[in-house]
Amino acid sequence: MPKIIPIKPVSDTAASGAGMVEDSLYEVRQKVHARSVTGVFANWRWAMVWVTQLIFYGLCWLPWNGRQAVLFDIVERKFYIFNLVFWPQDVFFLAVLLIISAFALFLFTAVGGRLWCGYTCPQTVYTEIFMWIEKQFEGDRSARIKLDKAPMSAQKLLKRGGKYLTYLVVSLWTGFTFVGYFTPVKTLGLSVFTLSLGPWEIFWIFFYGGMTYFFAGVMREQVCTYMCPYARFQGVMFDPDTLVITYDTERGEPRGTRKKGSDYKAEGKGDCVDCGICVQVCPTGIDIRDGLQMECIGCAACIDACDQVMDKVGYPKGLIRYSTENALKEHWGWREILGHVIRPRVIIYSLVLAAIVGAFIWGLATKAPLRVDVSRDRAVLAREVAGGMIENVYTLHVMNVTESPATVEVGVSGLDGIVVEGAERLELESASARTVTVQVRVPPDSGSKGANVIYFDIRSTGEKTAILREKATFLKTE
Prior knowledge:
Blueprint: H1 12-16, H2 40-59, E1 63-64, E2 67-68, E3 70-73, E4 78-81, E5 84-86, H3 91-112, H4 115-120, H5 122-138, H6 141-149, H7 154-179, H8 185-193, H9 199-219, H10 221-227, H11 230-233, E6 244-247, H12 249-252, H13 277-280, H14 301-313, E7 320-323, H15 325-330, H16 334-339, H17 344-365, E8 370-376, E9 383-384, E10 390-400, E11 406-413, E12 419-421, E13 425-428, E14 432-442, E15 450-461, E16 466-476
Antiparallel strand pairs: 1-2, 3-4, 4-5, 6-7, 8-10, 9-10, 10-14, 11-13, 11-15, 12-14, 15-16
Helix pairs in contact: 2-5, 3-17, 5-7, 5-9, 7-9
């Protein structure tokens, strides 16, 4: 939260002059120089960096059935995800996937706070990568602060230039990879090499790369503090039994320095030695000892740092730890904390999430290999043709949503003597669609005047047989 700075009274002289107030209502941003830290949670963060980035940068290069494993082909309006092929008509699956993501976020937040923010959010991941690059060029926290204050020199220019150039390379490669999920990445790479990129590809490579550079290399903690909506509404998903990063005030206060081996408790001091390292390692620059704050992203860097300090001074670990509000009040151990994790809201979120995930998996498993859309030609009313038959004209749009060729037989039923002419048998390539016009005819004494319900029976032959029945209307005017 921005800190409010009181406005100084304006003197009569100033008021009669320009009438300006020099002090801002909001605190000017202080650049955060996060100190590097090692430990259990730091290892987990880097593990998630590796996992997420190996998936992101590598998945578009993975070959699958003669193409890349994941490709969102907007031009052809087909999305490939391994063996699955999705068409615009499958947008339902996207909606369900978004619902699953929302409920998963609710569940994980209710149980463990901002786990998403601390370990897998792209902003956190790329900030971690860019901070590592910064450390390689400029050193750790104290060296960077010293470099910031130093006048411009050849050495400073070389360090800063190398850092920014590396930022740029990583950002552009990220933008290239992002576009590689929409344009086949090998084709995209060839276009870059031959300088034949299309305008939208150029735009999105530089736009996505620029946002990566700007957010992770420049704004950093400001994205989490001022731009991310999750920081605003996370409070409504927390309750006193939510695991969050906490400072044990009862054990740590009053904080203060002390001599090694002294009886600090006799001096009336707590376990906190007031070293400030928990603040130095925080990527958002907050002091967790002030309590849970909106800026805290739950990365647990302060836990690793504090545990190392406690080891050095010979005190028990856990002065800063994952705990809950109720646990601190009641002095619970892990058994009691975990016992309160299973509570009504967690059970409800879990059941709803399990049901939606089950339905999503069932929908994918039973996804029909064929799709068909039927529309009657409204420009051609019922008409009499040779032999006295009554004819209606229909347009069939048949899609093969698998990556195997299919032979499709078209039949029709619903009225006595009904027959179909024009395209009784269709050959479809893998992941392709065909639009055909067919004529449906019935004897004049079949059905009644007006609208009659008929059914198109679409049957595929081959390894994966499928039968679809699509309802339509047959119109008789006499």
